[in-house]
Each structure stands twice: as C-alpha cells, then as structure tokens.
TrEMBL record:
Record protein name field: NUDIX hydrolase
Entries under InterPro entries matching the protein: NUDIX_hydrolase-like_dom_sf, NUDIX_hydrolase_CS, NUDIX_hydrolase_dom, Nudix_N
Top-level taxon of the source organism: Bacteria
Provenance organism: Marinomonas colpomeniae
Required co-factors: Mg(2+)
Keyword annotations: Hydrolase
C-alpha cells in the first residue's frame, strides 16, 4: 500500500507504538493499515464413498484438479463460504459435516479450511470456474495433477482417517521450504 485509504496521503512503513510488525501508517491522519491473511474455505465433497474434484478453469493452476474452495467473503461464516464455493465450482449443493483441516501457508498469507461435506445428489457439472467436475474413488485421485499442496495434504489426511473409520481435525503448516523439497 502506498497511499492512505482514509485521506490519500503517502504512507510510511513503520512499527506503530505497542505493535511489533511493520505496518503502513499514514503520517497525516495516523490511520494504520493492518494487512492480514486471507481465508480460503472449501469442502471435501463426498458422494457414495467418492470424492468430488474440480478441474480448474481459472488461474492459478489452470487445468489442475482441486477440491472446491475459494476466498471467504465478508459477512459469511467459514462453512457458508465453503458451501458457496462448492456450488460455484461444481454446481452441487452440499451439507457440511465437520471442519476437517486447517492449513496455514504463511509465505502467501493464507489459511485454508476444508470441511467434510456430503453431496445431496450427484448433480454436479462444469462451471465458469471448473472445466470438468468428477467423482473419484480414493485409488483414482490424480495426485500428480492436483493444483495445491493444501489439497494434497487434506486428501492424504482424509485417506489415512478413512482407514481407521474416524475423522479427526488436522492442523498443518506449509512452508516455502517444504514446497521446494516436494
């Protein structure tokens, strides 16, 4: 940020009193801009033992498979956002069962939340955001064609939990170093 959203004056990057991080601070009106992480919320949509995946029709990672997910909007809950994204990306109506994974990705300032969800019907279809939508058996997941490491981690957690018949909450952090070693 170069200019204050309150008064338009050029901002300075400084650590405000009582804070511990550089912030964009307006020397004119003293407005402090808190640039906080973005929340991405989505589902692991299940139907008769299969997982619904969407082939991305948008960047980033155009053409790769993903779980339906996207940026949470203001004035919605994380589960509402997850269900909205599922509808937008797959045309499917789902029901959230439980929060399943939370993956922090500090180097891109994001937190990814995935809910276990059940599809009401198998009425999915391609959308503006997804060129293809399909159900996959667990042994058919296109691992080398998955768009994001948070999706890969979430699916691996799901498969491991399914072996034991109980679904736990998983919290993980993906660092830049982990991405370069994958």
């Amino acid at each position: 940020m170069r200019y204050c959203p309150q008064c338009g004056h050029a901002v300075n990057m400084t650590i405000p009193n009582g804070d511990n991080r550089l912030r964009a601070v307006c020397p004119s009106c003293e407005h402090i801009d808190y640039d906080n992480p973005r929340v991405i919320t989505g589902t692991i949509p299940l139907y008769k033992g299969k997982i619904l995946l969407c082939r991305r029709n948008i960047e980033p990672r155009f053409g790769f498979w993903t779980l339906p997910a996207g940026f949470m909007e203001n004035q919605e809950t994380t589960s509402e956002g997850a269900l909205r994204e599922t509808l937008e990306e797959s045309g499917s109506v789902a029901k959230c069962m439980q929060l399943f994974s939370m993956i922090s990705i500090p180097h891109i300032n994001q937190v990814h939340l995935f809910y276990l969800a059940e599809l009401e019907r198998d009425d999915f279809h391609a959308t503006e955001e997804s060129s293809e939508v399909a159900l996959f058996d667990l042994d058919e997941i296109p691992w080398n064609e998955l768009a994001f490491s948070s999706v890969s981690k979430t699916l691996k957690f799901f498969i491991e939990d399914k072996k034991y018949g109980t679904y736990n909450f998983h919290e993980e952090t993906i660092t830049l170093n982990q991405l370069s070693s994958d």
